[in-house]
Amino acid sequence: MKYWRVEQDARNFAILADDGNDYGSQDFLEMEGARKIDPRKLQFIFDDERPLPIGDFVPTFQLGVLFAKREVFDLFGPSILSGRHALYTARTDKYDLQIYVPMEEVSGFDFERSSYDTFDDGDVWRMYELKLAEGFFTDFDIFRLNDNPGTRFHVIVSDNFKEIYDSNKLTGLRFTAV
Predict the structure, then answer these.
(1) Where do the domains of the chain lie?
(2) Which one of 16, 17, 76, 124 has the fewest beta carbons within 10 angstroms of its own beta carbon?
(3) Could you name the domain of life of the organism this protein comes from (predicted)?
(4) Rounded to an integer, what distance in angstroms lies between the CA atom of residue 42 and that of residue 35?
(5) CA 46 – CA 50 distance, rounded (Å)
(6) What is the number of other CB atoms lying within 10 angstroms of the CB of residue 58?
(7) Do residues 138 and 106 lie in contact, with contact meaning Cβ atoms separated by under 8 Å?
(8) Residue 81 has what pLDDT?
């Protein structure tokens, strides 16, 4: 099985910015010190300073979560619903979006083959190249890694997820083999 790191394609598609939302990635991912999400406060606005098209998946400043219309997530069916996840509705200046938060975390980060910077305490803070351990396998089609606090912000998907994305000619994400 091949796995892919998912990154938001903010170079080619309009970015969704906070508009009253003050929740960060740590809150969505329920990390240490996270605040409980109040769905009424999930307000966003599309950045109009760069006239780019809106992708099927919408880039944001939130790491570790995916924003898209409900019908986009519906295309993935059981592949994204089988694992633990959280769903929220984001209100925007154009239309509502779903926020999908993959809550499945597995161990499998290859510290030796990956390229990254760390804080003084060893936590990963910038990822250049993410690699999974040799022989890595999970039944989840979408997940995050739990090997280090800094690896928890990266969404990893299976070939199955990528095949659904590609076959439906979806936009807004970039995939890098891990």
Answers:
(1) 3-177
(2) 17
(3) Bacteria
(4) 13
(5) 10
(6) 28
(7) yes
(8) 85
